[in-house]
Design brief:
Pfam families: DUF4340. This is DUF4340 domain-containing protein. InterPro entries: DUF4340. Keywords: Coiled coil, Membrane, Transmembrane, Transmembrane helix. This protein has about 600 residues and is α+β, with helices and mostly antiparallel strands. Among the domains are: about 180 residues, no CATH class; about 200 residues, no CATH class. Strands 4-3-2-1-6-7-8-9-5 form a 9-stranded antiparallel beta sheet. The longest helix has about 45 residues. It is elongated and about 150 Å long.
Length: about 600
């Protein structure tokens, strides 16, 4: 090999080496010109219209369970649902539009790295089963937005927050001040993460995967002002064998709140002879504190999870059938949640609560077994609830039809009447008939008005019951155990020792009740005090002394005229007035 060829070879090798070094340097630290060109540009170029968003997927690592937790909300059949929760209805439309709008405004603030080996450092490792061996801190949160056809509109893996002391590259420190600056990797069309790590302003809190953040959590939509009565039914369900259970009734207690005071409406106890009427135990009173907690718990009853009911049972509940049937699989599904079907009636592990509203319907809540959701957000014990709405027929007695006066045509004809019964004239008969017809019309008009009001109120209650049951029918609801403990009261919880003295005044400040007005003052002047009595004449009647007050009826006075003697300026009793009979004449005088 000649010297010239050796020189050429050395130069070529050096060029290749320098090229490789240049590539490595570029991948590790992007060129300043390239970074400058990207800064300020939208991070997601395919997202043009927030209305195009039809689904949102969020995947994160659950450190408590040590597993990947996917969450997805999507529009299915025109409804927003949560597929990971058996398509439970989601309150997602406005929230998802807001998220899509926010993503459209996300701008590139800088580039941290192009090396895959830096992904762990920035916490942008894709959260999937293949990366579970990676440190939990290095797993990011995957966010993916798609349109109705499943086309990706925006996708990223959000990593840890940017620290102003980070020195991975100058770009990583760009605008690091602010808690929302995070490292971000984009997802490609194939769903895989790209190598480049950007710095962008992303609020990770808006990408919640908590079930209750995406639903209407208010289970009952309860209005305290419409509360009429609360009934607590206490019973026990005990297994007889593997196929049968026994229901043992205990008590049913109904209370109501009137004028800010709780009172007992009825108390029924179940004994050897069946149901018997009970009363408030001696020396005890209604436990207002526990009942106020119960009322607040009803208002605050929130959903933290759901489980789908057996299909056949759901269909019957939507039809509001009182007698239910269920197959073997459905029976097992009921019992797993702590409910049983006995003689066509659903019963539960922990009794029932009936909340009667003055709008014509009642909520019936049955409490089942404890339920563990097993996630970080809702760790701990919760409780299954079987909810149903029922029309309260007692609030809708049909208005009575009025008794209409009979028309003259329904009475005797003139041929059948005696001379004394016959109408004096045809004109008088027509007037009487017109009066009766007017009265009949008035009564019928009033009845029709009352009937329409009754019908409208009943129809409104029926619609409310139907809408509530359409929401309740498919699901066992899961509520916090703390709320359940306030709802689940027994006889001993409802009564307390009676106070020996009221803790608050009956009227006035501190009582919550206005004091009654004082009695009206008398306008009659008070009589002067009587002079002291002469002890020597105690037993003698006082003849000449005028009395300031009227003497007692049973103490006749000496100078008082007798009943049959006329008073001054009055006619004598035996002298009758004009055209007036003698009232005081003894019998027999004539």
């Amino acid at each position: 090999m000649t010297e010239s060829m050796k020189t050429l070879l050395y130069v070529s090798t050096a060029a290749v080496v320098m090229s490789c070094v240049g590539i490595v340097v570029w991948r590790q630290t992007p060129a300043a010109e390239q970074v400058e060109e990207m800064v300020g540009k939208p991070l997601f170029t395919d997202l043009k219209d927030p209305l195009d968003a039809a689904s949102l997927e969020i995947v994160r690592y659950d450190s408590q369970l040590g597993q990947i937790k996917p969450f997805r909300v999507a529009q299915v059949g025109g409804r927003w649902v949560i597929p990971s929760q058996s398509n439970y209805p989601a309150d997602a439309e406005s929230r998802l539009r807001g998220i899509a709008t926010e993503l459209m405004s996300v701008k590139v603030l800088g580039v941290a790295s192009d090396l895959p080996s830096d992904h762990e450092q920035y916490g942008v490792v894709k959260p999937d089963q293949n990366n579970l061996k990676t440190s939990a801190d290095s797993l990011g949160v995957l966010v993916r937005l798609e349109d109705k056809k499943g086309k990706p509109l925006a996708g990223m893996i959000v990593g840890r927050a940017v620290d102003s002391t980070d020195d991975a590259s100058p770009a990583a420190r760009l605008q690091a001040a602010g808690s929302q600056q995070r490292y971000v990797r984009l997802l490609g069309q194939d769903g895989q993460g790209q190598d480049r790590v950007f710095v962008a302003s992303v609020d990770l809190d808006q990408f919640s995967s908590r079930f209750e953040d995406w639903i209407q959590t208010d289970l009952l939509e309860f209005s305290p002002i419409a509360l009429d009565q609360i009934s607590i039914r206490e019973y026990a369900v005990t297994p007889v064998n593997q196929l049968q259970v026994k229901l043992t009734e205990r008590s049913e207690i109904t209370v109501r709140e009137k004028d800010a005071q709780w009172e007992l409406v009825s108390l029924s106890l179940y004994g050897d002879n069946g149901w018997e009427k009970g009363s408030l135990p001696p020396g005890q009173q209604i436990n207002a504190e526990r009942l106020n907690e119960l009322k607040d718990a009803i208002k605050d009853l929130t959903i933290v999870g759901v489980q789908r009911k057996p299909a056949l049972l759901s269909d019957e509940l939507k039809g509001s059938q009182s007698q239910m049937t269920i197959d073997a699989a459905g029976k097992q599904g009921l019992e797993r949640a702590g409910f049983w079907l006995i003689e066509g009636r659903i019963v539960s592990n922990n009794g029932e609560l009936v909340i009667r509203m003055n709008t014509g319907f009642s909520y019936r809540l049955r409490f089942g077994r404890s339920a563990s959701l097993g996630d970080e957000e809702n760790a701990g014990i919760n409780r299954y609830v079987f909810a149903v709405a029922e029309l309260d027929e007692q609030q809708f007695p049909a208005p009575a039809k009025p008794e209409l006066p009979a028309l003259p045509g329904a009475e005797k004809t003139d041929d059948d009447k005696t001379d004394g019964e016959k109408q004096p004239s045809a004109a008088a008969d027509a007037d009487r008939r017109a009066e009766i017809e007017a009265e009949r019309k008035r009564l019928l008009t009033e009845y029709e008005l009352v009937f329409k009001q009754w019908q409208a109120k009943r129809r409104q209650a029926e619609i409310q019951v139907r809408n509530l049951n359409a929401r309740f029918a498919d699901w066992f609801f899961i509520v916090p155990e703390q709320t359940f403990q306030k709802l689940h009261l027994g006889r001993d919880d409802l009564f307390a020792l009676a106070d020996t003295a009221p803790s608050t005044p009956r009227f006035g400040p501190g009582s919550g009740i206005l004091a009654p007005p004082p009695p009206p003052q008398s306008t009659t002047p008070e009589a002067p005090p009587a002079p002291p009595a002469d002890k020597s004449k105690v037993d003698e009647p006082k003849v000449d002394e005028p009395k300031a007050v009227e003497p007692k009826a049973d103490e006749p006075k000496a100078d008082e005229p007798k009943a049959d003697e006329p008073k001054a300026n009055e006619p004598k009793a035996d002298e009758p007035k004009a055209n007036e009979p003698k009232s005081d004449e003894p019998p027999g005088d004539s």
